[in-house]
Amino acid sequence: MATPPPSPAVPFRGPSRSLPIFLFVVLVLAAFVASVKTAQVDFFVLVEAESRRNLFRFLFGMFPPDLSLDFLRLMLPPVLETIQISIMGTTIAILVGLPLGLLATSSLTWGGVLHEMGTMGQRSRRLLRVLPYAFARGLLSVFRAIPEFVWALIFVRAVGLGPFPGVLAIGVAYGGILGKVYSEILESVDPKPLEALQATGASKLQIVLYGLLPQAFPDFVSYSLYRWECAIRASAILGFVGAGGIGQQLELSMRMFNFHEVTTLIGLLALLVAAADLLSARIRKGIL
Predict the structure, then answer these.
(1) Given a cut of 50, is residue 133 above it in pLDDT?
(2) Minimum mean pLDDT among 2-16, 164-178, 213-227: which range?
(3) Number of Cβ atoms within 10 Å of the Cβ of 80
């Protein structure tokens, strides 16, 4: 009888690899337990008698929704205002995010194909180029770190109530997000077309215009449209601080316990988001 071939040796996983995994699992579990305690998570509160009464009062008050012509006619200006806030806010966000995103792209400012290492003088100039890169990165971080709700509170104090502080809040907060994403898109493009253009003697501007931006443009448009969809939802939240739009009327209806109006407003907001999603999909399909 032929002896079976020996089974392949299984490499021994020593403690050097298992210990970091064990420590990571312990850290995650400890963070979860601490978060449950600190955030005061208690699902049993939802089934208490008082919570059930308040929830049923809200749910039963939501139906039937207010679909009267007078109310819908009254809500037409806030709906249009919400759309206008989202469009202008996203436009400002693009105007803020695009130049900062270009400055925050390492392959444009101080590294990559456009800035190959050379003499000591070129190295010193490369160090100087890091300064605008670091400034743009820091500014984008500040814009992203402060939520649009807080920006709206700041701009309401600065320019007063109305849709304009909502526009500024979305423009600044989303400008930081778009700039960060734009820079990451530019840094992840395929460098081979850039190297091919450089080998033909193309200038840096030509490399950027004909090699870098065409590759990044579809992703630019796709993510910008996604942020526009988010801006429609955000404009509803900003209305709670007096920034206009559907959100302001939503806050008034909830304060007056007119929950049937809340249902109608939520439905209008859902229709706006669905329409924006459909339009964005059509534009993406046409570009991509």
Answers:
(1) yes
(2) 2-16
(3) 11
Domain ranges, ordered by start, for the chain: 60-287
User: What pLDDT, in 10s, does the model give residues 74-132?
Assistant: 888 888 988 899 999 999 999 999 999 888 888 777 666 555 544 444 555 666 667 88
**Nearby residues of 127 by Cβ (< 8 Å), 6 or more positions away:** 110
Residue 234 CA, chain-centre distance (Å), reads 11
Residues 236 and 151: their CA atoms lie apart, in Å, by 14
Residues 6+ apart with CB under 8 A from 94: 175, 178, 224
- Cα R_g (the chain), whole angstroms: 27
Query: Alpha-carbon distance 267 to 260, whole Å?
Result: 11
Closest-CA residue to 208 (of 112, 88, 80) = 112
Q: What residue type is assigned to position 47 of the chain? A: V
CATH number of the domain at 60-287, out of 3.30.200.120, 1.10.3720.10, 3.30.70.1140, 3.40.630.30? 1.10.3720.10
Residue-averaged pLDDT of the chain: 81
Go through 139-177 and write b for each residue having 16 or more CB atoms within 10 A of its CB, e for each that does not. bbeebbeeebeebbbebbeeeeebbbbbbbbbbbbbbbb
